[in-house]
Amino acid sequence: MLNQPMMEKLVAMRLQGMVEALKTQEQDRAINELSFLERLGLLVDQQWSWRENQALARRLKAAKLRGPACVEDIDYRTARGLDKTVVRALAKESAWVRNHENIFVLGPTGVGKSFIASALAQKACRDGYAALYLRAAALLRELALARADGSLRHFLARLGRIDVLVIDDWAMAPLNENERREVWEICEDRYQTRSTILTSQLPISRWHEQIGDPTIADGILDRLVHNAHRIEMRGESMRKKRNPPQDEKKE
How distant is the alpha carbon of residue 223 from its chain centre? Predict the structure, then answer.
């Protein structure tokens, strides 16, 4: 039987993975055929895996990604203009995050831009990076609240530490003066130090007018566009295909 005081000490030291591994070994008669170092190696491996899984769970919870998206579930069969080679290259070890590059996912509504963005961010979390998903409208609301309660510096600093910031539905509406200045600060803080994923229904050529002030727009786009990968999607809304009108269902 396992020594209870020893198990309690392991739990107190937060070695839960090792506790679980010891319980498993106790039930395995063949484990006695292994040497002490071999058994210890199994315990250490289990503790390492447990710790990594716990860290991943925390990163995914903090990321607040939109749905259970992952790169393995991306549908390449539907005609959306997705290049499997490009997406898989980006997903491999998330090198674009290590290189502080950005990703733009562009296309009409309903083609799955948010899923692609969340899937790439989820893979970055699996590769050890911190991510955060925000719809553009929610980001602007958060900025306004932080501006009102005096926590804007803290909020901007927090965004600046996120390895992968996902801004969904970017450039849907024109920015006001405060918003464009704060977006510029976000881009400035993250330039060549962090990565950003933007999804948008508008082509990049329309972003300048949505930002507004020409000088600030130039500054924002200069920090976003030149080191960005582009995933351009097309086709009909996948929501429409999944939920056809009632008259079509009857046919």
Answer: 20
> Over the stretch 130-167, which tens digit does the pLDDT of each residue have?
999 999 999 999 999 999 999 999 999 999 999 999 99
From start to end of the chain, where are the E strands? 102-106, 131-135, 164-168, 195-200, 228-232
Give 13's Cβ-side CA count (13 Å radius): 11
Tokens of 246: 């009632």
- For 148, the token pair is 């009102």
- The conformation of residue 40, written as its DSSP 8-state character, comes to H
CA distance 26 to 6: 14
Q: How confident is the model at residue 2 (pLDDT cuts 50, 70, 90)?
A: low
CA–CA separation, 197 and 193 (whole Å): 14
In which element (H, E) is residue 169 found? none
